[in-house]
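At this stage, I wrote out one protein, both as residues and as discrete backbone shape codes, and that material follows here.
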Amino acid sequence: MADRKITDLTALTTPASADVLPIVDVSEAAAADKNKKITVGELFKGVPDGTAAAPAIAFESDDGNGIFLSTTDTVGIATNGSSRMTVSTTAVTSTLPVIVPDGTAAAPSVAFTGSGTDTGVYSPGVDQVAISTGGSNRLHIAADGKVGVGTTVPGSYESSANNLVVADSGNGGITIVTGASSYGSIYFADGTAAADKYRGVLEYNHSNNAMAFWTDANERARIDSSGRLGLGTSSPASQLDVVGNIRAVTSTTSATTVRIGNTGNNVFLGVESSTGGSNITGSTAYAGTITSNGPIQFSTVNGGSVQATLDGSGRLGIGTTSPGALLHAAGKIRFGSNATYYGEIDHDAASTGSNIYNSQDAGGHIFQVSGSEKARLTGSGRWLVGTSTSALEKLVIKADGGGIQINRNDSGSPTSGQALGSIGFKGIVSANSNAAGEVLIQAVADEDHSGSTAGSRLEFHTKFSGTGPGSNPTERMRITNGGYSKFTNSGTFQSTTTTRHEFSQSVSNAYNLLLHTSNGSYNSEAFTVNVARAATSLYAFAHFWSGGFADIEFNLRGDGNAFADGSWSGGGADYAEYFEWSDGNTTEEDRRGISVVLDGDKIREAVSGEEPIGVISGNPSVVGDAAWNKWNGKYLRDDYGTYIQEDYEVEDEDGNSVTQQRRKLNPDYDPDVEYINREDRPEWGCVGLMGKLRIRKGQVTGARWIKMRDISDSVEEWLVR
């Protein structure tokens, strides 16, 4: 070795860490001690820390580029003497933009370790960004800033409303979830100043379950929790409550107007036009008619005596409820065209004679009973009942109580499917039939009527936007003869005969039913299901179907068990069960992250040398033995923890006694004692028995547990198994 040059030695192309190199130790004073040896592994272990300006490992042609130790446990990469990237135990930090390939939905350029390589972020095209899960595009931001959820072409939809498009091949929708006593709202704004921020509002108040509609920064309509619609009022007192006048015209340029409204305390229903006049006319069936199965009666005040009656034979009685002729007036009848003089027909009940005479009275024709005015036809052509004044209305009926009844005009009993009566609403008078109106409410026989059966239903019809006048409206809602409500947007119900309430939706991008609580202080249940029968597996609180009632995906059973065809997902990462502390935790100490052992049937903190059963969890995914809703011993159980059942009697729909079973109540149960669930009681601890758990540093750990990482200076994450 001493007689050979280094250049004559054989090259070692794959050195091992234990291979030895000669080295001169300059720290030794004596020449004999300077020559020493060092292994390859020891040589590279002593590399200096370096800096960004002078990396410890640099390149010959440019020593400002290389690797250095930035801080403890942090390695840096430098170029041109500046730090560009650092890698620590917790993060990778870069001072330069990170440029990745475009990727695809199936192979996104930015993916996540826990979700596989087909879930992440990618760019489907120039100036486009998308998010995929399971290899499919879920959210798409187009180059023009339009956002699609469930679609990659949001710009293909209506240009005035495609900034955000939510699409689905089947049923879909957007749900706004707020607090149980909060508002859920959609605002329409045209600026940021004052009321410009909320020019239009669609708002649902969960505290009182009311839906409000705003225009020009003011509430204009409201539907309360009872289904009552208020226009101009936020407190409707009836199914339709209008503060102001109701106006219907034949067209936007028509001079003829149908109005329902009031002036002061006077209510009016009339037809007015530029030429004046008040008429109810019609050339087809039901047009301009009021029908009833019994007499129609008019009263001057709510609950007051009847002042006028139209009986089933078409006889009108004024001042009598039993008219004996087509027109029967129990008192004077005045008439005449002169503004100063008028005619009068009078009958005194005390005599057999009648009087017809004229008198000076600018009030028009006045109808009296026993000297008291009950109705009048004014000089301006207004018909007033119960009042003598009116500013605009052509017909005014002032009464307390009573109502209007609509009767069929056909002879014989109605047959199944035959209309019993209807109310039509029209914007343009192009047809006289109620069925051709824009909105129709009608009663229909559900079966052939006879003396013992008269099942009927109530239907509500409206028209889609864009449907022309004269065409029939489509049925949207039905109340069946059994009292069940059916709703549909398409005119087709899932079933009209089943004994259940129903909401049917045919639109692919709108939710079917929204339960919204808008009150920020709401503290009740936004949705409650109650079954009178005791808990049992023989019924379900809810079934969630797919494929047109082909498969049940979720089953919330009546005995408190829940089933899913897929999986249940939670935010936690461990399985836990509740155990009671042996010391009762009387100081209410926060014991999360403490490993525990059994102490009899209770737990205590584990000490060195013991094998812990688990760790007090701060975020479990599944929790057992929680006793979250009632005292765990409320009902008796057998030795295996199964509920003990007992027989009890109930009465079915036919009044027969039926024997059923229910859980047997523990005689020690006291319903007057308030129950506090274990989650809120300091003497109970939630012990994570398996999964990823966070443990305080220094705690006793199990032999099979695996440390995963440090969360902070005082907390570690372990896999407990």
